[in-house]
Amino acid sequence: MKRKSPGEWKPVILATALQVAQGGLALVTLRGIARRCEISHKQVAVSFGTVEDLRAAVAAEAVRTGDRAVMGRLVIDKHPAVENLPGDVRSACVEALAG
């Protein structure tokens, strides 16, 4: 099996982190995501840098893709990535959590 380059791992890591972030951004850790991807935490760090960088990427991707479950958590946590969203969108995201 061909080894993946850091660039090839990035979308896999981000997709995994988005799934984990549905439970809250604090659950996204380098080691936790690495375990789920079956790679080393160093590979996650090579792809994203620090855990804060990974969490920022997850928040940005959730907003970009309209992932309401993650965005709802971000609204509840008062994350800067969602502070400029219209009020009706913010409300809909939080309501999606109750779903």
N→C terminal distance: 41 Å
H/I helix tally: 6
Radius of gyration: 14 Å
Taking the sheet with the most strands, its summary is: none
Instruction: Count all strands and give the number.
Output: 0
Strand content: under 5%
Average pLDDT works out at 92
Task: Give a structural overview.
This protein is mainly α and 99 residues long. 69% of the residues lie in helices and 0% in strands. The protein has one domain. The longest helix has 16 residues. The chain is elongated.
What are the salient characteristics of this protein?
single chain, 0% strand, 99 residues, elongated, mainly alpha
Brief sketch in words of this structure:
The chain is mainly alpha-helical and 99 residues long. The chain has helices at 6-21, 30-37, 41-48, 51-65, 68-76, 87-98.
Structural topology:
Blueprint: H1 6-21, H2 30-37, H3 41-48, H4 51-65, H5 68-76, H6 87-98
Helix pairs in contact: 1-2, 1-3, 1-4, 2-3, 5-6
